[in-house]
Design a protein that fits this description.
Blueprint (H helix, E strand, L loop, with lengths): L1 E9 L5 H17 L3 E17 L2 E13 L1 H13 L3 E9 L8 H11 L27
Antiparallel strand pairs: 1-3, 1-4, 2-3
Helix pairs in contact: 1-2
């Protein structure tokens, strides 16, 4: 069986629970046809580069798939019939990434970082006055 990465974009006006339902539908179609889904990631609601079917934003989801071509073709056929999915793309890959995708790393980056400034820092300005001389200056 071949390895695939599948990404779909769902309409902006559906909820994240409905996107999970769409993902479950895709997984069920693949498993009915002998495929396996190794990983699913919900990337969240993101802005689109341009309007797609009157939508400015979309819910992005990624699936790492191991399946035959027939199973992937059936999955894409059913996705094209669904009005909630506005775009989809399937790529054949040599191997899946073991860890989380770039999008998830960027999404979680802000959670791992500490605050940018401490509470006593005022915009990064130095509290010393410009006209004061440094200590130990004899002039």
């Amino acid at each position: 069986m071949a390895l695939y990465e599948h990404i779909f974009i769902a309409r902006q006006d559906i909820s994240s629970q409905q996107v999970e339902g769409l993902t479950d539908m895709v997984v069920a179609v693949l498993e009915e046809n002998g495929g396996k889904v190794h990983k699913t990631e919900y990337w969240g609601l993101k802005s689109l580069a341009y309007r797609v079917k009157k939508n400015r934003k979309g819910h992005y989801s990624l699936l790492n798939i191991e399946a035959d071509h027939a199973a992937v073709a059936e999955m894409e056929r059913r996705i094209s019939l669904n009005d909630d999915i506005i775009r989809h793309m399937t790529l054949r890959v040599e191997q899946h990434e073991a860890d989380e995708s770039i999008q998830m790393r960027n999404k979680n980056r802000d959670e791992r970082r500490g605050p940018r400034r401490s509470d006593n820092d005022e915009g990064g300005r130095d509290d010393r006055r410009r006209d004061s001389k440094p200590e130990g200056d004899a002039s």
